[in-house]
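#struct-pred

JT: dropping the chains for the assembly here, can someone run the whole complex?
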Amino acid sequence: MTAELGHFALILALMVAAVQFVVPMWGAQRNDATLIALAPPAALAQCVLVALSFACLTTAYVESDFSLLNVVQNSHSAKPLIYKISGVWGNHEGSLLLWTLILAVFGAAVATFGGNLPKALRARVLSVQAFIGIGFLLFMLLTSNPFERIVPAPADGQGLNPLLQDPGLAFHPPMLYLGYVGFSMAFSFAIAALIEGRVDPAWARWVRPWTLAAWCFLTAGIALGSWWAYYELGWGGWWFWDPVENASFMPWLAGTALLHSAIVVEKRDALKAWTILLAILTFSLSLLGTFIVRSGVLNSVHSFASDPARGIFILAFLVIVVGGSLALFAIRAPALKAGGLFQPISREGGLVLNNLLLATSCGAVLLGTLYPLFLDALTGDKVSVGPPYFNAVFIPLMTPLLIAVGIGPLLAWKRGDLQAVAQRMRVAFGISVAGALLGWWLNDFGPLLPVLGLAIGLWVAVGVIVELAERIGLFRVSARDTLFRAIHLPRAAWGMTLAHLGVAIVILGITVSATWQVEKQQVMKPGESIDVGPYRYTFVGAGPARGPNYTALRGEFRVTRGGEPVTTLFPATRRFTQPAQETTEAAIRTSLYADLYAVIGQPEANGGFATRLYFKPLVTWIWFGALVMVLGGLMSLSDRRHRVGAPKKSAVPRPKAGEVKAA
Amino acid sequence: MKLKTFFPLAVFALIALALGIGLYLNPRIIPSALIGKPAPTFALPAVKGRTAGFSTADLKGGEPVLVNVFASWCVPCRVEHPLLMDLAKKGVTIFGLNQRDAQGGEWLDEFGDPYKRTGDDRNGRTSIDWGVYGVPETFIITGDGHIACKHIGPVMPNDIRDKLLPALADLKAKGTTDKCSAS
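RK: done, full complex below.
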């Protein structure tokens, strides 16, 4: 019964979405206040219906209702409750339902909190949102119904991939989807603006918070995914340039560019067409990401859905949404009036450079991700483009970008003075060169890449601090005034400082952990010791262990440093029976200084065990930096300007043409 | 109307076309310029954790063998890997060329090592000499060290059945084969 209710709610939601797509758009074109006013209640109704449907599916999972095919395939009665719940979105159909739910919630948020938007704009935005919703609802109802029954119902489920039974991964998809779908707001605003033929600072001010929020979620989602890969896959790696990872990284790069170009629209009324294009591209890449993961077009370890019928549907949807919006852009963009002029050396110039480099790296990732597919389409060859390509193109693009991160915020709007900036950045330059040389020396004058990484990480970090010190008048005015200025600094400024600092932390984490990591792999017998970096690992022994739904081989390592005990590590290999699969549970002791990482493998004939032991300095900084970036984003999001929103948004009065008569 | 605003649309059309074709694709066979020529000259150290390195001389043992180009970062390699393990168990000699990869040793430790000998081609030079332009690729080598066939992409069960095993049997029996274009 619950399942039928959920299914029925989905069908109703589709109908409501159809109304929400057609009526408000029509009303906005005809300036009909009654039709326009239908948008918010329709968005709310759609949200309630999709939420009901999602609740029904969750109930079926929690109750282990094995008369549902989806529950049978992805759950098991012996699974802990949290993974029963995360199982709802740990599969193709359920994850689509989550996608749609988030989309509907965002639509409802615009309906509820968008009171300060011009009513026609809000109606158009909600209409575009509804169109995306129609696509996903239809997709589910036609090809991927989560509420399909199975007769007769089996006694128990087929379990969930044990690799996915993990807190990090349980919350990874919702985060990613909040990001992906969040960019749909920027997209809807962009389409609405193209239809209205108007983009102004007020528009940018409405788009920015949505983009910022989506960016925060996506950053957190990517970081969670990479952290999961790090501790769960047991390889000690944290980024593999896997197509699925790239699928989330491309919208992130485009979204980061959008975040910055929207600033230029807001503050200087320039870069309008480009910003619109970025908004379209960012969401298109989110859709493409969903397509790549869901259709199985590109083979990947992660992809858990592979079905051509679904692929064709998504492709058709992609062509309509992306092709349609780009066609609209092609026709309407020339009509957008160019705004403020600026010199190449200026804050705007810096942001343009940021955009160019981010867009290029995004294009490079796209090329690398799709190249195997293109080659296959043209010649029939199957290849894998791996880290060699991505590292080769990514580092040269990121280097100038990160140098610019240090300089950009110090430049003035319209016309900057590079010489004055150079003056102020002397300290940063000195520190980064000194730090890099120190690192080079510590690394026995080895490869130059880590030297570059160190220099750039320090450059960004010190640059951020110099900029902050400048703003709060550190050492120039009294300590009291400095504190006063620091408190009254706009939160958006603090947000930028934090986010850029986060980038520096990530760079330093990547560089140091890659350069000074020590890795030992060998067969060890109980009682043997081995030195890994400054630590000594002693293998105590290994034996069987049991968990709620698996059996395991568990090893014990005592770790000491200079004779002092540090910690005891218990790495394990888990063997699941539902489905039959083995996972490696690396034992990791995390600290800000270094991670100690141990993996145990199968017993060897001579009574020893295959072991892999690592010393990974500063590796945690990678995720800590991402966290700092997210905090920066949230800080900026909490800026008063965004909360207060519209009324004071623009000095230029909005033209009345698109306004509603009797709103 | 400016033409340049149509540029994104045009790029997208190309991508959509490729994605569309991608949904219907089947791998095909591409001949290599090196077919029938002696294998290039090289000598590589073994992949980490192994002792037997790999050089041209190993290919002239009198028996037909396989040379498989792999990397831990290569996803299709992981797909074909269990099949290579089966082949090795059946007594087929496979040599592994580990292209531009620092983690090849761990990879083999984790999933098993089907290779009689491995070559650590860290900078990819040997792979270039072999005309490898993607990973994975698999070569069939005659008993006297000539390249008989080249298989691009992962080896699938039907490739083994229709191509690799018949070609190896042919080479063993009469020194030549016409099975390279099968499947």
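JT: nice. Chain A has four domains: 1-163, 166-415, 425-516+625-630, 518-618. Residues 406 and 460 of chain A are 5 Å apart (CA to CA).
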